[in-house]
Each structure stands twice: as C-alpha cells, then as structure tokens.
Amino acid sequence: MKELGISREVVKPVLKNLLELYDMNWKLIEENNYRTLADAIFEPLDSKKSIAEGSTSSNTNTAIHKKRRKLIQVEDETEPIVNLTRPGVQSDNSSSSVQRKSKKLHNINDITRGTEKIKIPLIDDIGLEPPKFLYIPQNISYQDAYVPFSIARISDRDCCLNCNGDCLSRRVPCACSRETGGEFAYTPQGLLKDYFLNTCISMKRDPQDHHLFHCQDCPLEKAKNEHNPEPCKGHVLRKFIKECWRKCGCTMDCGNRVVQRGPTCKLQVFSTEGKGWAVRSAEYLPKGSFICEYVGEILTNTELYERNKQGRKNERHTYPVLLDADWGSERVLEDEEALCLDATHFGNVARFINHRCHDSNLIEIPVEIETPHHHYYHIAFFTKRNIDPYEELTWDYGIDFDDVDHPIKAFECQCASPYCRDRRKAIAAGGTKKKDSVVKGTASGSTSRKLNYKQVQ
C-alpha cells in the first residue's frame, strides 16, 4: 500500500475492520498480493459503510481512484485475478475474474444492526444481489394474530415462582420441566440431551410411526376453500421445550433459558452459486447446540393465504413456518389463533438457512416461553450432529414437491442430497429416485406442514 502512495492512516481502519469481518484470518487478506485490502481501500465512499469508518479529503480520494484504475489496468495486462474463496464456498476459477470485475461484492459487518449479542457478517464472494429485509431479533405481530403475553395468564403451576439461581442445579426439577416429562431438555452446558434430541429427530423422520392428530375444522384446508374445505390431512404430534420466563424466580443465567437469550455461536451469512444466500458457523458446534430461532411476522393463516395470493408472480419471498403443533387439541380453532411466521420482510438470520431433504444437519423444535398454551410458540434450531467449522447449516423444510394445489409453488430443489424428494428433477433426467422407502417416509409427514418451507434467497 505504501508503494501505491496510500498512507498508514488510511490503511489502519480498513485493515482493522477486515480482520474483524474475517475472524482474524490474515490469509484471506494477504491472498493475491493483498487484493482484498486494495479493493476495500479503493471502493467508492458511498459503498464503504461497512468497511471504512474514517474519512479522507476529496483530493486524496481522487488520487486513490486513479491508482485503483492503474492497478486494474496492470492486472488486466498480466494474468486473470483469482476470486477469493473462503472455507466452505465453492468457486469456478474459469469465470472468477469475469465475475470479480463485472459484479459488485456486498460485504456487511453485521446484518443484525447491533440487535443481537453477537455480530453476524454477510460475506459475498460472487456479487450476489443483497437481501432486502429488516432484521428483527424477536417475532412481531402483523395485524390480526392473537398473541397475548400476560403475567396474569400464567398460573403458578405453569412457572417456578419460588425458584432462585439456576433451575438445572435443583435436586428436584421445577414445574417448568413438566412439558419434557419431569426432566429438563438441556444439559448444564446448554446442549439438548441426547434422548430428547434423538426422539425429536425420529418423530420428524418417521412421522407415520408416531401419533398424528386431525383437526375437525382444519385452518389449513379452510384457508384454501372456506365454504367447502377438505378433511384435515393430519398434523404431526411434536415434543415441546418449556423454558422459564418472567414469572419464574430464577435468573437469566438459568440453564433452562437458552432460546430466549438469542444466538451465541459465530454465524455467517455467505453467498453461494445456485442456492443464493446460506448460513454457516465459523466455529465447531457439538451435537445439540442451539443455533438460532426462526423469527418473522406473526400472521394468521388467513392473512398468510391472502398475502400469497396478492404477491407478484416473480416476487422473492421466504416460505412461512406454520405453527400447527397444537391445532388438533381444540375442537374448533378460531382464525386469529391459527398462526404462522413469515420472514419475507422482517426476519432474522434463520431466513437464510437453506433446505436439505432428509439428511439436514439442523432440526426445528417448538419452544414455549411466554404463553402457557401451544397456539403460539417459538421455532428453535438445534444441531442434529457435530458440525465442522464453515460447514453450511441446513434444515428440512418438510416441503411436499408434489403439492400442485398450494398457492406458492415449490422451488426446484438444489439440496444435492441422495434422499432428495423433488422427483421432478429425476423425471426430467429420465431416472428414478434411490432410497425410495426413505423418501416416502419423510414426505408422508410433510402433508401436515405444507407451508413449512422457505424459498432460497
């Protein structure tokens, strides 16, 4: 940088932010003769919001822009610029130089805007269009959704009013463990216990082996045809976690308060070829680790259906998560009580987690926190196995690729799993699906959650 006439005062703040963005990985910065550092310095001021925090004079800026053009000219006369590749991101070196010069990269230091306890960077290696949404750390109600958060609604039997300190250290588990059979679902290390996690995985993998309940007046079918709805196709009975909340006497450090404290692992949003944005962790994650909650707008099922009908044909969106785990417990569920989550316009990092059929490394588990009933609950993601650093995080949306009547058409699956349920790809290729028994077993449970999937961003 000194040879290019760039002072230390200009380099230092840029280098500091790059090291923070790349988790102190110096090799990513020094590759290709410090190309990343040069790009960060030469980038125009109007696109340096997440990199340069200082300012320079207009004369200095003009000189820097001239040197940048000169640097590009020299490189064009010698050899192609190799696109930087970070761990876990595949690249096509044959076209990397074209992509690097024709597309603008979008790197953001923290997509949460300081709303989470950790920073979650967005790292773009291929010039992907940046996502358009507002990051929120907690669910927000859209309009008609009935979600009452009231201390008065929580009876003494539904909380541990007399506890103090950490509930996991008690000899006798408190009332908040009743939902999980009188034992807490978490270990003292904040991980899910193996027996609880394995049961949840089994219930999702083989739903027909577990109890299915049917609504007398199914909100999902009623939204499709209010006057002549089809019979309920069944909903999977799922295990819940009950966390301590504000009426409990324990502290926020209690081991039974994991999801409500938000994400703590080093997550990153990164660009991919073919699948849009994705999520990974920059550190090793043991089995049973909490990743994040699926956060979005709380809608009624009717609001969701109307929103999907009114949306533009080519509009990008995320597929919603249907909160249907308790629909069968009521004889008739009111429209404002049949809820779902939509992270299209307002959401958190979970909206970028991609789908993978059957053998994903994450599982979603219902978590009850504020309310004593299951009409509204939180969707929390946990690791199904040990996760290596920079391995992409995925979860099975439960998508039914054969559901031609659904208002939102299923996307073409890019999961590359040997158990992929998108038979359209196999038919187009003239082949047949392998592991057919596994595929059928998985797909059979998706009929109860036809809205429970998200489009690749």
UniProtKB/TrEMBL annotation:
The keyword Metal-binding applies. GO terms for cellular component: chromosome; nucleus. It is found in: Chromosome; Nucleus. Residues 163-262 form the Pre-SET domain. Its main location: nucleus. It comes from the Eukaryota. Residues 443-457 have a biased composition (Polar residues). Residues 265-398 form the SET domain. CDD domains: SET_SETDB-like (cd10538). SUPFAM superfamilies: SET domain. Keywords: Chromosome, Metal-binding, Nucleus, Transferase, Zinc. GO terms for molecular function: histone methyltransferase activity; zinc ion binding. The keyword Electron transport does not apply. Residues 429-457 are annotated as: Disordered. InterPro entries: Pre-SET_dom, SET_dom, SET_dom_sf, SUVR4/1/2, WIYLD_dom_sf, WIYLD_domain. This is Histone-lysine N-methyltransferase SUVR4.
